[in-house]
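Service request form, structural biology core

Requester: graduate student, group of Dr. S.
Request type: structure prediction, single chain
Budget code: on file
Notes: please return the result as structure tokens.

Sequence provided:
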Amino acid sequence: MISEKINKWILKVIQDRESHDLMIELPPDLLKSVGWNIGDTLNWELSE
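Core staff response, request fulfilled:
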């Protein structure tokens, strides 16, 4: 669980040149706080 402390991050969105997938580099402290690891995949869906 993310602590009550307010954190601010600037996230960089990168587009893969081959697949054109968009990638967001998340800061290590955010990854650790929610139990994610580098290389984990999140699937985002746009809702209408």
